[in-house]
Amino acid sequence: MPKRKPLISIVDDDESVREATTGLMQSLGYTAAAFPSAEDFLQSQQVPRTSCLIADVNMPGMSGLDLHRHLSASGNRIPTILITAYPDESIRERALNAGVICYLTKPFEESDLLSCLHSSLPSNGP
After folding, report:
1. Backbone angles phi, psi at 11, to 5 degrees
2. Mean pLDDT over residues 15-24, rounded?
3. pLDDT above 70 for 108
4. Could you tell me the pTM of the whole model?
5. Strand ranges in 43-79 using DSSP code E only, listed in sequence order
6. Domains, the chain
7. pLDDT at 126 over 70
8. Angle ∠(7,8,10) on CA atoms, nearest 5
């Protein structure tokens, strides 16, 4: 039976970032699912399948950090990478203290995202 590829879920209200990140994950051999909001992700069937979550910090409705906290509080400890175009040291500190794997500032280097991704997934990636 073939091993199921890790699912990377991307939550970003910016369609261009969402599409670019989804394309990158797929080009690396991952399965990717994209969502325009935290609420859409939470209502999806993908939450239990998600191996890693890449979420924007600043979104209408629930923020990326609030999404991470919500998932953790409900027992879904999904490794999370937060990305933001508006870096804020106090939010970065709170995010890392809450267990977020990485906090990246847009535009970020592809290699930085991949490094975060590899540290969040078991070593048997795609």
Report:
1. -120, 110
2. 96
3. yes
4. 0.94
5. 50-56
6. 7-120 (3.40.50.2300)
7. no
8. 140
The label of the residue with tokens 């879920």 reads: 9
Helix axes 64-73, 89-97, angle to 10 degrees: 20
pLDDT of residue 5: 87
Alpha-carbon distance of 118 to 1, in angstroms, equals 24
Give me the pLDDT at residue 104, please: 97
Helix (H, G, I), strand (E, B) or coil at 81: strand
Residues of the chain with pLDDT > 70, as a percent, come to 94
Mean pLDDT of 57-74: 97
Q: How far apart are CA 52 and CA 77, in angstroms?
A: 10
CA distance 122 to 95: 22
9 with 21: CB under 8 angstroms?
Answer: no
In Å, how far are 27, 53, 78, 85, 117 from 38, measured between CA atoms?
24, 11, 14, 17, 20
Residue 37 phi, psi dihedral angles, 5° rounding: -155, 160
